[in-house]
Amino acid sequence: MDNQIDNQIENLLQRFFDREMDDRQALELLDILERSPDLYDVIAQNVQTEFDLRFLADRENRPLRTFEERMPFSNARRLCSRSVWTRVSRIGSLAIGSAAISLVLIFVFLGRLPGLPLMPSWNAPSREVAVAPSPSAHDVPPIVNYSMLDGSWGPQRGHGSAEGDYPAEATDEWTDLLRSRTEGWSGADGIYTANLDGTIGEGIENRPGQRTVFVFSDTIVGKVNRQTNTRCDTKMVNHSFAVLDGNEPLGDRIEFFYENDGKTPRLPIQPSPEGQWYWLSECFVLNDAEGPMLHTFLLRMERRPGNGAFGFHHLGVDLLRIPVRDGKLDFDAAIVTEDKTGRLHGVVDDSVVDNGVAADGANAQESRDRSRGMIFFGTGVLENLKSAGAVEPDGYLYVYGYKDEHRLARRLVVARVPPEDVARFDRWTYYSGNDQWSADIRDCAAIADGVSTELSVTPIPSGPKTGKYALIYTPGTVGSTIALRIGDSPVGPFGEEQVLFKESETATLGKGVFAYNAKAHPVLSKSDSLVISYNVNSNDDTLAIFREPDIYFPRFIKIRWEDILETQ
């Protein structure tokens, strides 16, 4: 009998690792894991496997006690000498343990898990909601340069080394702009950037008067104790903004924005009703008759009771617009356009985006036992506009998204829209393959596979590949590799995946630390290179981000165009 059970477990595990498990087998494996925590330790040997297990549990609506029991919550109050983190506003008032687990899951999946309602009517009107004004707090706390720090902080650590096909170098000046803070804003992920005048131009060195907006998702606000090298008095908010004045990464020229009730940091933009929140996606600035306007896509979330760490689900993707007046963001005049059309998000048939990507099950990631997946738009934007300084403008905004399939298989899709119609979701069209565009999101064709939930597509401005497009991403969302594919147009076809960079810092920061969601920042880049960011988080110790100042802030690298072009 024991041999029979062992064979059953071995067969289930093999199917799990091969990603060929049906629903009945998934339930069997979850039952075994509940009874055998030691078995969990054996198979959860890496970050990706553990995420797959969590994904599997959520898909079957089976909260796994094993996960909750094995997370180190007992040390929660050791983050600082004072009581910290009594409220995590992103998911409401939760016990500290449940919130900590949710943070790890949220950071990696960015909320993109199954279980969404079907799409609403395709032609329903969009709705605009004026954001109620409230006092806005902004801070410019003391900035610390690493050269000023004493030995208690420790030596400055590099943040990676190039091990791929291309020479890449760290841009410490951009990393230190965010890492060196000691009070107020002290960490975040989900970073996107835009020039507040709506242009990209030839290079940041040629734009001394540039004002750059930074858009962040989950944000840590608190203090950094320089004597103990720890974060203290730490809170978390769902998103934040910053504006850098000038074209140099100087700490005394950047200002951070978030609301504050005097005790707990709150949010500039809050959906209604209470209990919902937004995560921010790609941002861009468009100029119209009323002046420049910051746009950013919003992933609307809501608390889902009764499912442990997975106590949240998606409601859709909306669009935020904030006027830029005299070079400043007017948060009080912000407008959220809610997508009631199903244009930005929805549940669709699995076959929708197969066109353009091999789907013969040749690799495990493409083996599927679900008939439905989800599409999200807003993960990246290409402004192919003359007003933005595009090399070959065609008058369209290209809005990138991805189709989340079972087993975390993510495929790139793209829509386009004239800039004046960006908030008119019924006027969007979707690339359906073979140079064709459709008004129906269900006709989306995949143009690349294995992408991350945050990415970028950037025109190549110089060299023999001028006019081509660089797709930058983290393969599979999580991992040390930053990848590039070269495309012939904003919709591809994109060539083979090439390794740009392999970060090495996470291996030195402790067990379970990982990198994710790489993307390019043209507005931070000089004319001869491309600046790329990636995020760093911890899975092994879910409270590490509230304690360790070296975890949970963006890192930046730089790739020279000439080095990319020589090897393509």
What does this structure look like?
The structure is a single chain. With 568 residues, this protein is an alpha+beta fold. It folds into two domains: 2-74, no CATH class; 127-147 and 159-567, Tachylectin-2, Chain A. It is 15% helix and 34% strand. It contains nine helices and 30 strands. The strands form six sheets. Strands 17, 18, 19, 20, 21, 22 and 23 form a seven-stranded antiparallel sheet that branches. It is globular, with a radius of gyration of 23 Å.
Named CATH topology of the largest domain: Tachylectin-2, Chain A
Strand content: 25-35%
Class derived from helix and strand content: alpha+beta
Characterize the overall form.
globular
The main pleated sheet reads as:
7 strands, antiparallel
pLDDT average, as an integer?
74
Cα distance spanning the termini: 57 Å
Counted by DSSP, the helix tally is: 9
- The helical percent reads 10-25%
Q: How many separate domains make up the residues?
A: 2
Low-pLDDT regions:
65-159, 161-165, 352-371
Key features?
568 residues, alpha+beta, Tachylectin-2, Chain A, 2 domains, seven-stranded antiparallel β-sheet, six-stranded antiparallel β-sheet, 9 helices, 30 strands
Sum this structure up briefly.
With 568 residues, the chain is an alpha+beta fold. It is built from nine helices and 30 strands. The radius of gyration is 23 Å and the shape is globular.
